[in-house]
Amino acid sequence: MYHKLLSLGVRPVNPAIKAPNEQANLDFMEAAMHGSLSVVQKLSKVADVHCAEKSSGRTALHKAAFWGHIRVINFLVQECKLDVDVKDYNGDTGLHDAVRFGHKAVVEALLKAGANASVKNRDGDCALGVAKKYNQHDLVPILEKAQPHN
Q: Is the pLDDT of residue 8 over 70?
């Protein structure tokens, strides 16, 4: 089969072998999750900073927001210009994650960067709904101000 593919001009790829950039992408997202700013900065030069996990659709921004790594968030938003409203497979944005775990500084940074607080996840919750659901009472007034007024 391999020779047949080669004769047709197709070069089969072994899925067990990761492309160098793919490994950099994985390392970039992991460094963001752990709050390793210097590693994130270094890897941002070789990784696709917009990459997402295949299994979840989660990005470096999701991972840093989930764990409350404000310095990494600031770098990802200001230097890497990441989309602050990108959704994972559950429809969650980084703002949803930051709100869920009460990371006020991350919530404020994402809103300042233009995050849309009215984006709803798969459960139908916007950031304000998540704050109320998870009893993040100190975030409610911040998110109420960020809601569009009809």
A: no
For residue range 13-54, what is the model confidence (pLDDT) as tens digits? Answer: 445 545 568 999 999 999 999 999 999 999 999 999 999 999
Question: Domains in the chain: how many in total?
Answer: 1
Q: Taking phi first (over 0 means left), then psi (-120 to 50 degrees means alpha), and beta for anything else, what does residue 10 get?
A: beta
Q: How far apart are CA 53 and CA 146, in angstroms?
A: 29
- Joined tokens for residue 99: 């709100």
| Residues spanned by the domain of 40 | 2-146
Cβ-Cβ contacts under 8 Å for 14 (sequence gap 6 or more): none
Do 95 and 115 meet the contact criterion of CB atoms below 8 Å apart?
yes
CATH code of the domain containing 82:
1.25.40.20
Q: Is the pTM of this model over 0.90?
A: no
16, 8 Cβ separation under 8 angstroms: no
Contacts of 62 (CB under 8 A, 6+ apart): 86, 88, 92, 93, 94, 97
Contacts of 29 (CB under 8 A, 6+ apart): 51, 53, 58, 59, 60, 63
